[in-house]
Amino acid sequence: MARLSRAEAQERNRARVVDAARAEFAERGFRDAKIDTIAQRAELTRGAVYSNFPGKRALYFAVLAELAERAVAPSNPQRGTNRREALGALARAWVTSVGHDPLARDFLPEVAAEEVTRRPFTQLMKLDALLVSLALEAVEPVVTPPGSPPPRLVRLAETVLTTLSGASGLAAAAPGFVEPFDVISACERLAGLDLNDWWATPPGAAVRDDDRPWSPPTVVDLVRGSEVTPDEDGVVVVLGLNRLAAVEEAVRADVPVTLAMVTATPAELAPLARLVVAQVCAGLREAFPVRAWPRLRVVCDETGALAAAAGVPAVSDETETAVRVERGRVVARAEGSGAGHAVSAGARARTG
Asked: H helices within 4-72, ranges in order?
């Protein structure tokens, strides 16, 4: 038998830890689960567990993220052809997702426990709302009078996600209280809610010329749940987990956008990001026709490889950088507040 490389051995041990943790959390619950017991289940040392995960919470997020990412989609999803149908289908997908799994009952309390998880979770939910909004706007375009500000459905999407997340929380805290069919019906009726939502153009950051080769790695697009190499012309926005809402500034210019989510603490916060985005994207793929799936690509850039390809070698949870790619080269960049809009608007102007 061929000897495993160091990387292969690490990956094998990580998988064993995650499998053991899933069994431990399912049997004892998050609160009563013990790292020592997880190590015993995995037939590894306590040190081997901590070499892969900084703590029990990070391991818990990783377990839930893998459940969300590996969920088997129905072979013949009943996708909606208008907002009402699509929101009903999204709600049906949600109430059968990992969010309603008993294993997830401690998720929201753990997120709420500390500011270090609350801030990125808020931004991740804003990203989820943008993705739902883009799908809603595509499946049934918003009609407004000429001269009106650009309409959007982000606030409607936030209301839908509030309803679904609340239902998940109650399903965990008060089993039997929530009737899933009522949740689905409520979300269908939210389709007609008019919140007078529109998008205001933000002030743009300064854009400077650049000239470097663009050689991105192959990454997983969480929106479509598949690997992709983002090597075509477009905009790449590198955002820390505390700045994710800023991606809307790039998206509204209607150019191809890839979002690279980065964090200074990937061992704990990257699984949280994967979980929150994967759950809603799995629902979008079930609920909306392919033509309505958001054009936005979302990548959890745990290693920082995509950010480095864009010329951002050092990242933090406050990172906000955007670059424009043309014909295999990075040709422009902007940094700081408004970077995504500034670079995307420039790309839109160049393409007409």
From this structure: 6-32, 35-42, 46-52, 56-69
